[in-house]
Amino acid sequence: MSAQKPEMLWQPSQERIASTRLSGFMDHLKRQYGVEVRDYPALWDWSRASRENVETFWSALWDFCGVVAETRGDRVTADFEKMPGAAFFPDAKLNFAENLLQQQGRGDAIVFWGEDKVKTRLSHDALYQRVSKVAQGLKEQGVEPGDRVAAYLPNMPETMIVMLATASLGAIFSSCSPDFGPQGVLDRFGQIEPKVLFAVDAYYYNGKVRPSAPTVAEVVKQLPSVQKTLLVHYAGDGDPSGIDNAERMDAWEERFPGGPIDFVQMPFNSPLYILFSSGTTGQPKCIVHGAGGTLLQHLKEHQLQTDVRPGDRTFYFTTCGWMMWNWLVSALASRATVLLYDGSPFAPDWRILFRMAQEEGMTQFGTSAKFIDALGNGGAMPGQEFDLSSVRTLMSTGSPLLAEGFDVVYNNIKSDICLSSIAGGTDIVGCFVAGNPIGPVYRGEIQARCLALDVDVYDENGQSVRDQKGELVCRKPFPSMPVKFWNDPDGTRFFNAYFATYENTWHHGDFAEISSVTGGVVIYGRSDATLNPGGVRIGTAEIYRQVEKLPEVAESIVIGQNVGDDQRVVLFVHLNEGYQLTEDLVTRIKQQIKSGASPRHVPAKVLEVPEIPRTRSGKIVELAVRDVVHGNVVKNKEALANPEALKHFEGRDELRD
Ligand SMILES: CC(=O)CC(=O)O
Asked: Do the beta carbons of residue 427 and residue 298 sit within 8 Å?
């Protein structure tokens, strides 16, 4: 990125700015704390400048969002100068579920679509009662604070109910989507030893029923910690008889009377979730997130970065095996309705999510860069076919949204919309960089660094740089840092994951750049996948951006292959139907990369593959492909949605010379 202003694609009107939660928060800061800032850049700068400001920010956010707690305590931070080690609200006691169950009445708490087959909705009162019953059932089962409850469930209301019931007891919730096979589930739940398992009988994907009960039966046999399994009846026959110690969840739940929930008040940092790293380089890491940190981080991201308002209807396309599920469900705490969708986003075709947006009055539409690319490549024009007037914000994550993806959103979906490309991930159950509802959107740029996060980009010497690629870091503590890794008693794995590179600084592992002109951010890929031909670091997204401009290319994956003491860039392309990788196409691909990026980016080899391997949450796996090309074992193929695709990269003659 040069120090130039990219094209501005959208700017909020003055009325819109005035109506945002963020403007309300800025007023609150002014009235309560005398902090006066004119715009987002000034607010961000103030919010992370010193310990005092960070503390004021989080205190103000707590009040502004109306956090419910038994006690907040006087201290906002302890050991602030230590990373790891710093703590937020060390004297506070609260319950996460209580904060998400504040609304009452017959309005929608959850709306659920299971592809085009199932539509259900649950009111706030009904949700509360179901959570109450399940919490009573879990209590009878002996679940106590700190115990683990696991869910092998689709993205359906029961998953939220189980999570809320677990959290109401101060226990720890962990989930895995039902597309994982037995080994994938055991690699995850085997490490955390849940006491109770909730699992689905079958689910829908791409119009077909996919049975899960046989996997559940196999998993339960190898998970001795599980004392009881509750089978959720969804797309199967609901028969639990083949599973040890299993019962149907609906019948079990009905045995309990419900009524007021006794929310156990827990320390701010008590574990709420265990999330799993993708596990493509070994056993998945079990990342433990705290109740208070998750709550505050999501309140901030929803209300201030995404403008979620009371009465909104918030949607993110996700499974419950991805942290965007945890992110989405917290929207209840901002008094929004949560819209859940389970299945393929193309079932029966690309229209389904836009139909949901129109029929359900969606206000925030969350998706992935890959979905936006697919719409663009397929020439879909959702804005012409659907009334998307309710949708104010469109979010994208999963991989960097390239500049062309911004065009698809504004040309094909909606012109008056805040496009928030967001990035962070499982490690922080949230974002480092995200939207700014009161500022402009520039083509190809993430709008802003998130409030109260001292995000920067460092060069290899640990110096802050602008308009230059480097490592994304965070220089001060923040509430949603993980509490710890499970089974890491001395914290060594935790330290090595984030704090070993720069002293007292979070090293995130994204290769990124901050513009000195707009303050926007571009992410060029994961830093462990960067290419290094001739000693120059190149982010993989720099290459994807060029290659995917060619209509023949459906997708691509690029790696650095070690040859002698150097590295060469090898690009694999998956072509759209009807095309072949002719010499002419290879020349045009190289030409596009050379003119669009630089001669250094041009791959030494361009090879065709019929499929690109990806994780179950849709991320292409450059490191796994790199391993295969170098003849190394891919450690955890269970993490992949299509592990068989790896064989197309193995032993390729073209890569022997
Ligand atoms: C917010 C994110 O960064 C989500 C992801 O891509 O994992």
From this structure: no
Q: Compute, in angstroms, the gap from residue 338 CA to the centroid of ligand 1.
A: 19
| Cβ contact 165:138 at 8 Å | yes
Report the nearest-CA residue for atom 6 of ligand 1: 398
Residue 327 alpha carbon, nearest atom of ligand 1 = 1
Measured between alpha carbons, how far is 469 from 455 in angstroms, rounded to an integer? Answer: 14
615 CB within 6 A, ligand 1: no
Cα–Cα distance for residue pair 613/618, rounded to 1 Å: 9
**Concatenated DSSP letters of 579-640:** ----HHHHHHHHHHHHHHT-GGG--SEEEE-S---BBTTS-B-HHHHHHHHTTPPPS-GGGB
Q: Is the pLDDT of residue 1 over 90?
A: no
Question: For 47-83, how does the pLDDT look when each residue is reduced to its tens digit (9 = 90+)?
Answer: 999 999 999 999 999 999 999 999 999 999 999 999 9
Distance 422 CA to ligand 1 centre (A): 7
How close is the Cα of 230 to the center of ligand 1, in Å? Answer: 30
Q: How confident is the model at residue 296, as a pLDDT?
A: 98
- pLDDT for position 411: 98
Question: Angle CA(553)–CA(558)–CA(564) in degrees, nearest 5?
Answer: 140
| Angle 515-517-523 from CA coordinates, rounded to 5° | 15
8 A C-beta contact, residue 133 and residue 258: yes
Strands of the sheet containing 448-449, edge to edge, are 423-425, 430-434, 448-449
Query: Any residues with CB less than 8 A from the CB of 587 and at least 6 apart, and which?
Result: none
Ligand 1 pocket member 425 (CB < 6 A): yes
523 lines ligand 1 (CB under 6 A): no
Q: State how far the Cα of 83 lies from the Cα of 232, in Å rounded to an integer.
A: 42
The closest residue, in CA terms, to atom 4 on ligand 1 is 425
Tell me the one-letter amino acid at 640: L
Ligand 1 lined by 305 (C-beta under 6 Å): no
pTM for this prediction: 0.95
Whether the CB of 422 sits within 6 Å of ligand 1: yes
Find the DSSP H helices in 141-232: 157-168, 182-192, 213-221
Domains of the chain and any CATH numbers: 122-267 (3.40.50.980), 530-655 (3.30.300.30)
Intra-chain end-to-end CA distance of the chain, in Å: 34
- The 10s digit of each residue's pLDDT in 506-518 is 999 999 999 999 9
Q: Give the pLDDT confidence of 460-484 residue by residue, as tens digits.
A: 899 999 999 999 999 999 999 999 9
Token representation of residue 127: 């949700």
Q: Would you state the pLDDT for residue 281?
A: 67
The SS3 assignment for 101 reads: coil
Give the H or E element holding residue 492: helix 492-498
Give the model confidence (pLDDT) of 270-301 as tens digits. Answer: 999 999 998 766 789 999 999 999 999 999 99
Residue from 323, 330, 446 to probe ligand 1 pocket by mutation (most atoms less than 8 Å from CB): 323
**pLDDT recorded at residue 251:** 98
Task: Please give the distance, rounded to the nearest whole angstrom, from the Cα atom of residue 426 to the centre of ligand 1.
Answer: 7
Whether 249 contacts 233, CB under 8 Å: yes
Residues 616-622 have a mean pLDDT of 91
